[in-house]
Amino acid sequence: MEALNTWIEVPQNSDFTIYNLPVGIFSTKIRPNPRVGIAIGEEILDLARVAEIGLMQELEANKAALYNPFLNDYISLGKSFTTKVRKSAQQWLTDENTKLKDYQNIFVHQSKATMHMPVRVGDYTDFYSSIEHATNVGKMFRDPDNALLPNWRHIPVGYHGRSSSIVESGVPIRRPNGQTKPDDGPPVYGPSKRLDFELEMAFIVGKDTQLGEVVTTQQAEEHIFGMVLFNDWSARDIQKWEYIPLGPFLGKNFGSSISPWVVPLEALEPFRVTGPQQEPEVLPYLKYQGQKNYDINLEVTIQPEDSEATTVSRSNFKYMYWNMAQQLAHHTINGCNIKVGDMMASGTISGKDESSYGSMLELSWAGSKPLNLSDGSKRAFIEDNDTVTMRGFAEKEGIRIGFGEVRTKILPAV
Length: 414
Fold this sequence. Notes:
This protein has eight helices and 26 strands. The protein has helices at residues 47-52, 57-61, 72-76, 79-94, 131-141, 236-242, 324-332, 360-363, and strands at residues 23-27, 35-40, 43-46, 107-109, 114-115, 124-127, 158-160, 166-168, 173-174, 177-180, 188-191, 195-196, 199-205, 224-232, 234-235, 256-258, 263-264, 272-273, 293-294, 297-303, 310-316, 343-345, 371-372, 378-379, 387-396, 399-411. The chain folds into two domains: 23-115, SH3 type barrels, CATH 2.30.30; 124-411, Alpha-Beta Complex (Fumarylacetoacetate hydrolase, domain 2). The termini are far apart. With 414 residues, it is of the alpha+beta class. Strands 6, 7, 8, 13, 14, 16, 17 and 22 form an eight-stranded mixed beta sheet that branches. Strands 4-3-2-1-5 form a five-stranded antiparallel beta sheet.
C-alpha cells in the first residue's frame, strides 16, 4: 500500500490512522443532534459540516443522510459513494493545502464527543464459526473424543438473536435473572451465576436483497459494509438449561455490546490471509476463491471495580473456520432477504492454545480452573461490577488499522 502522511496529529499506535478512517455516529454539547463522522487520530471529521461547506458535491447532495442518528441511510447510498467519500477524506487529510483548513468546527476531539449506536440493527444473526471454540465446548459438554456435532464441518451453524438488546460501548449490562437447573434438584429462579463474555467480531450488511434472492460467496463482499468488535454476553447456566431443543434464548438475549466505529471492509484489504483448510470438501455453494480470512489481533481484559485490568485472552480473527463470505452465502441460500444495518456476528473466536480462548467458559474450563487476576482475585466467570474490554487491530509493514474498544461494566441483578 502507498505510504500516506497526514497533517493531522496521529499518536503512535493509534487505531484511527489515515489508512483506516472508520465511520460512526457522534454528538457533542454544541452539536447535540447525532451525525456521521470519520475518526482520524484523536479527532472526528464532521462529515455533515464538510457537506455544508460544499467541499464534495456528492456529500452536499446527500446531506440528509449525514444528519442522522444511524449510518443506515449513509450506507444505503452504496459502496461507490461511501468508498469515494473515504478516498476523498484521505486526500483532504494528506493535502497540506486542503480547503478543510480554511474552516472552523470541521473537527471534534473524541474526548468531547459522545458515540452512539452506529446502525439501526434490523436483524442479528450469531454464527458458531471457530472450530477451536466448538471443539472445546463439545469436549466439556458432550464427548471429548467426538466433540463436534455431525453437521459442524458442513454448514456455518448459526441462530437468529435479539437485535433490540445490542448496545454500544460504555452502556452497562445488568446481570440477568432466569431459570437454572442444579445438578441435584429441580429448576430454580435467580441471577445467573455463570455470566460470560464471548469475544467476537461482526459485519454490517451494506446492501439489501429481495426475498428469494441468493448471495453467492463471490458476491458476498459487495453486501458487507464493514466490521465492529462484538461482545456476545452469555449466561451459561441459563443457556445450559434452556438450549435443548431450540437453542439459545434468555441466556443470550439480555445484551450484546459493540464498538462504535465501523471499519470499512476496504480498509482491511492489506490484512487478508488464507483460512484453515476445510475438510471434508464443502458443497459447491460454499466454495470460494481468494483469501477471505483477516489477520486481526484481538484481546480481552477484565477489570474489577477500583482495581487494575488484567489481560485474559489474546486471539485472532484469522482462526475462523467459516469466513464471512460463506456465512452470508449460507444465510441467503434459502432465499432469506437481508437489509442494510443487519448485523452478523462471528461466534466466539478462539485459537489453539489456552491463552487465545475467547470466553470464560473455555479459559476457566467451565469454572474448574479459575483465572488469577493481577490484583490477587480469581475469576471463573464475570462478577458484578467487573468491566470487560475488548480491543482489536491489524498491523502490517507499518500500516495499522484498529477498531477502538468495546467496554462494558456488569451491574448487579435486580
